[in-house]
């Protein structure tokens, strides 16, 4: 998939400076940031899914006495 990404002027300038400082392209920095975001969101989804599964399986022992 190909897409155009519109950044604010300040974002674009900061990205260019960062890329130059790292000897990289702005595109490689953005791609890495997207990869990191997708990995983190995938991890969060896994934790939510497993948490819900654990809650259903162990709902009774997890209740506080008197509830």
Helix/strand layout:
Blueprint: H1 9-22, H2 26-57, H3 59-62
Summary?
The chain has 67 residues and is mainly α. The protein has helices spanning 9-22, 26-57, 59-62.
Descriptive notes:
- With 67 residues, this protein is an all-alpha fold.
- Helix content is 75%, strand content 0%.
- The protein is rod-shaped and about 60 Å long.
Task: Give short descriptive properties of this protein.
67 residues, mainly alpha, 3 helices, 0% strand, rod-shaped
SSE pattern = HHH
Taking the alpha carbons of the first and last residues, their distance comes to 52 Å
DSSP strand count: 0
Shape: rod-shaped
Helical content stands at over 70%
Biggest sheet statistics: none
Evaluate the radius of gyration.
Answer: 21 Å
Q: Which stretches of 5+ consecutive residues score pLDDT under 50?
A: none
Number of helices: 3
Strand content: under 5%
> Multimeric state of these chains?
single chain
Whole-number mean pLDDT = 85
Helix/strand structural class: mainly alpha
């Amino acid at each position: 998939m190909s897409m155009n990404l519109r950044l604010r002027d300040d974002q674009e300038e900061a990205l260019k400076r960062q890329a130059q400082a790292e000897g990289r392209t702005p595109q490689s920095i953005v791609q890495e940031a997207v990869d990191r975001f997708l990995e983190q969101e995938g991890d969060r989804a896994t934790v939510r899914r497993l948490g819900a599964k654990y809650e259903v399986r162990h709902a009774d022992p997890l209740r506080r006495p008197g509830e």
